[in-house]
Design brief:
Helix content is 38%, strand content 21%. The protein is built from 15 helices and 21 strands. The strands form four sheets. Strands 1, 2, 7, 8, 9, 10, 18 and 19 form an eight-stranded mixed β-sheet that branches. The protein has an eight-stranded mixed β-sheet with strand order 16-12-15-14-13-4-5-21, with helices on both faces. The chain is globular. The protein starts with a helix and ends in a 22-residue tail after the last helix.
Length: 530
């Protein structure tokens, strides 16, 4: 049977549309924050781009990574433009607090504390990620991103400088998408890194974690605790509850993050060289309660709490990285590129930098620039950033996490240098301040050498204290309420005072470990390759 001319034209148009639906400029693999923010920014900056966002889940469930800090707070509010949503559906965060105990600590009020004296100066939030990620993906779709959901990506073929191919399964059917760029935002699945042999475990940082959400956790600022411990309650001029509270011990720490609606996200993170987590004997929440209740602060807070059913998780060997971060036609963002440690909540800072730099990379290609140099610079910057970030902040940090005096010094140094060197950049330069990740610029060389040196030395002092049996001796009855840092360069004077405090520590007892060799850990040499 012959088709009429009009029907034949309609058929050809349908074929063309079907073909076009499988051809894109950018395909993003993974729809949570890293992927949806990349898709959203690409459509805002280059509305002509055909962008597809492939997400396997028909709805998001809660996930870790709930706390923003100052850089990620800037990204989600000022770059993504979500301030109204953040204030309406999430909690304003009041910085970080740390709680210490030893054998003399009997009650919550006896525990040594580090935290802010006043409300924070710069905005950040405690996020219910299921709610937040749904908002970002909805905005990406509204901006014109083609959302393929639920759909599973099963294969990818990379062609440097050419058209990439992604195989997906959607509605029971398999089809191929062709695209100039693939952005891998697959999270810890690390889709491209694992398929191409780039994924490497960071063997120098063998951490593990258990986490769940709880209901009925006591309010840090509630009347019950205020009446029970009035002097403790009156000590700070800020509120404690919406901070990220850290309950710490020798070789481990625990996050306590409140969520809108009353639930509390609680996780335990430990260095497996220092802490043995029970493999047997109950559910994850039961193990968490037994483990945490050895600390008087956690015991008090969990007295009436119950875990949320079906929301418990355990993961070993958290730290990893990809030896390749991008190529001419693909880029890895967020956890698909690397992960270090949840302490200080760096995960969404990492998203902010990797997404911003990836969007800039694609903009350069779309403008007709040759890609060899931008790709090489991107790989070199993020490889160096991960390696130096890890060495400056996290390497062997768990050696001293259980000691009030040592964390007190290291935390204030870390915080002051974070404000002066990293947080200041986006507030000075806007989005452009997120294009170069931490420690990737020659300007940061001195800060990196300084930070890795004091971190290494404080870890050595902690090992020596542990050997003498005095680690954590100041964990009872001490309180450091910090006035807070600003972006004023004059705050550099505070950092200088802290460095002098470090010098005093070295002269007082650091000399005991000056000539001792640190325990050997496997190097992370792959990180330093550009």
């Amino acid at each position: 049977m012959l088709l009429s001319r009009s029907r034949l034209d309609d058929f050809e148009d349908a074929v063309i549309i079907a073909i076009m639906q499988n051809e894109y400029d950018v395909v993003v693999l993974g729809g949570s924050l890293a992927g949806s923010s990349a898709a959203l920014l690409l459509k805002r900056d280059m509305p002509h781009l055909r962008v597809a966002l492939v997400e396997r889940c028909d709805h998001f469930s809660r996930r870790v990574g709930e706390a923003t800090v100052e850089v990620s707070g800037y990204f989600v509010s000022r770059v993504l433009g979500l301030t109204h949503h953040l204030n309406e559906y999430h909690l304003n965060k009041q910085g970080m607090r740390f709680w210490f105990a030893n054998e003399q600590t009997q009650t919550l009020a006896d525990a040594s504390e580090i935290g802010g004296r006043y409300q924070v100066r710069l905005p950040s939030w405690q996020l219910d990620r299921s709610v937040f990620d749904e908002e970002v993906i909805a905005r990406a779709k509204a901006a014109g991103v083609d959302l393929l959901r639920p759909a599973q990506f099963t294969d990818a073929t990379l062609v440097p400088g050419g058209m990439q191919t992604v195989t997906i399964k959607e509605d029971g059917a398999t089809r191929e998408l062709t695209t100039r760029w693939i952005i891998d935002a697959s999270g810890i699945a690390c889709f491209l890194a694992r398929r191409n042999g780039w994924w490497q475990r960071n063997t120098g940082h063998p951490t593990a974690s258990a986490w769940t959400r709880w209901r009925g956790v006591k309010d840090w600022d509630g009347l019950e605790l205020a009446e029970k411990f009035p002097q403790w309650a009156a000590a700070p001029h800020t509120i404690r509850h919406t901070a990220t509270n850290h309950i710490v011990g020798d070789g481990w720490w625990s996050w306590w993050i409140p969520l809108k609606g009353g639930d509390m996200s609680i996780g335990v993170v430990m260095d497996q060289r220092l802490v043995d987590w029970p493999e047997q004997g109950g559910t994850i929440p039961e193990k968490m309660r037994a483990f945490l209740s050895q600390h008087p602060v956690a015991k008090e807070m969990l007295e009436h709490a119950e875990p949320v059913d079906g929301d418990a998780h355990w993961r070993k060997n958290l730290a990893y990285f990809s030896t390749t971060f991008c190529g001419d036609g693909f880029s890895l963002v967020g956890d698909a590129a690397a992960f270090m440690d949840p302490l200080y909540s760096p995960g969404m800072d990492w998203i902010s930098f990797t997404v911003s730099a990836t969007v800039e990379l694609i903009k350069k290609q779309q403008a007709g620039e040759a890609m060899d140099d931008p790709v090489a610079a991107h790989n070199a910057a993020f490889s160096q950033s991960y390696a130096r970030w890890f060495e400056a902040i996290y390497k062997d940090k768990y050696e001293y996490l259980g000691d009030f005096e040592l964390v007190n010094l290291a935390f204030r140094l870390d915080l002051g240098l974070y404000y002066l060197g990293i947080v200041s950049q986006p507030f000075k330069f806007g989005r452009d301040g997120l294009l170069v990740p931490p420690f990737a610029s020659p300007k940061s060389d001195f800060a990196w050498h300084l930070m890795r040196t004091y971190n290494r030395r404080i870890a050595a002092i902690a090992r020596e204290r542990r050997q003498r049996g005095v680690l954590g001796k100041q964990n009872t009855g001490r309180r450091m309420l910090i006035p807070g840092f600003t972006l004023d360069p004059k705050d550099g004077k505070i950092v200088v005072k802290l460095l002098l405090e470090w010098l005093g520590l070295e002269l007082r007892e650091g000399w005991r470990s000056w000539w001792k060799t640190a325990p050997s850990t496997q190097p992370v040499a792959e990180l330093k390759t550009a």
